[in-house]
Amino acid sequence: MIQQVAQILSYKKLRDDYYLLTIVAPEIAETAKPGQFVNIRPPADRQFILRRPFSIYKVNRRGEWAATIEVVFDIRGGGTAALASLRAHDMIDIVGPIGRPFAIPKTRKSCLLVGGGIGAVPLFYLAEELKGAGKRVDVLWGAQTAHKLLNPIDAKRFGAQAVFTTEDGSEGVKGRVTDVMDELLAKCGTEVIYACGPNSMLEAVTRMGQKHRIPVQVAMEALMGCGYGICMTCVQPVWNRARDQIVHVRTCVDGPVFNGARIAWDAFASDPGIRAAPVGN
Ligand SMILES: Cc1cc2nc3c(=O)[nH]c(=O)nc-3n(C[C@H](O)[C@H](O)[C@H](O)COP(=O)(O)OP(=O)(O)OC[C@H]3O[C@@H](n4cnc5c(N)ncnc54)[C@H](O)[C@@H]3O)c2cc1C
Ligand code: FES
After folding, report:
1. Given this model, what pLDDT does residue 24 score?
2. Is 274 within the bounds of a domain?
3. Which atom of ligand 1 has the smallest separation from the CA of 71?
4. Which ligand number lies closest to the CA of residue 51?
């Protein structure tokens, strides 16, 4: 994990709602793996104490000048609004790469990537790595409405099958990603599912994987404090099967990628039986 003050190479607005920053960060780019994230300190001096976590969208190690990473975000509060005000040549304080990446399957060949809205961010870098490893990649993006689908043009480029769902029917199939999954899994011969998006979607995709006996890796979000594994702000409830109980693991260092089948989805409502004991995933 490296901390550096890095220069913004470029700023771009994607569709209506998403912002893309390309950051010159050679040391982070050299070691970053799909599913890992960076922690960025928003500008504006002391107004923001905590860094904000963002998945790595793309890595370019062959940049003309130096290796870069890209992050994509939407504005949720003050920190992301401050980041959206940055422009090329501004400097930014960044730490990364952080967390456990997606596992690339050794033998399984056919991979379905399921992204919900802005949650599709880490799946772009993953798609590149999977394709480089000779895997088949299919894509299923879902969102509330068309302009919340993340970069569907690129997704069509790398997906053998690229299917989009929107809840209002403004693009692709009207409905949710799980409405088309039975058919898509059969058509693509899917052997591994990777998913990132809201928890309700990750739970539904995990259950779909279990129904079809396909492993599901989920990249999860959590409120974060330190980003170093110390403060326990970011814990997720997971099953510890050996002890047959639910324990808490830290998203920042034990995740953000988890085996979907290990997440105790029912425990997200407050559960007095949950113990705050970090264990490895
Ligand atoms: C591993 C990981 C990867 C992420 N990747 C992306 C990404 O690629 N693109 C993107 O747009 N967003 C991503 N997020 C969510 C992003 O971190 C939040 O949108 C951002 O922190 C909100 O900051 P804010 O100041 O604008 O919002 P505020 O709500 O004002 O933030 C207040 C505090 O809450 C924390 N916080 C608020 N929402 C979240 C959240 N969902 N997750 C974690 N901390 C939060 C902030 O760190 C801050 O400390 C990711 C989160 C995690 C944990
Ligand atoms: S953010 Fe502090 S332990 Fe994960």
Report:
1. 95
2. yes
3. 8
4. 1
Same domain, 137 and 197: yes
Cα distances from 97 to residues 38, 105, 143, 227, in angstroms, run 5, 21, 27, 11
**Nearest ligand, CA of residue 220?**
1
Ligand 1 atom 23: residue of nearest CA: 79
- The model carries a pTM of 0.93
- Count of domains observed in the chain: 3
How many angstroms is it from 254 CA to the middle of ligand 2?
Answer: 10
Tell me how far apart the alpha carbons of residues 218 and 209 are, in angstroms, rounded to a whole number. Answer: 11
Which residue, 69, 98, 127, sits at the end of a domain?
A: 98
How far is it, in rounded angstroms, from Cα 44 to Cα 75? 16
Residue 36 maps to which CATH number?
Answer: 2.40.30.10
* Of 76, 121, 228, 250, best ligand 1 pocket probe by most atoms within 8 Å of the beta carbon: 76
Give the range among 15-24, 25-34, 188-197, 270-279 with minimum mean pLDDT.
270-279
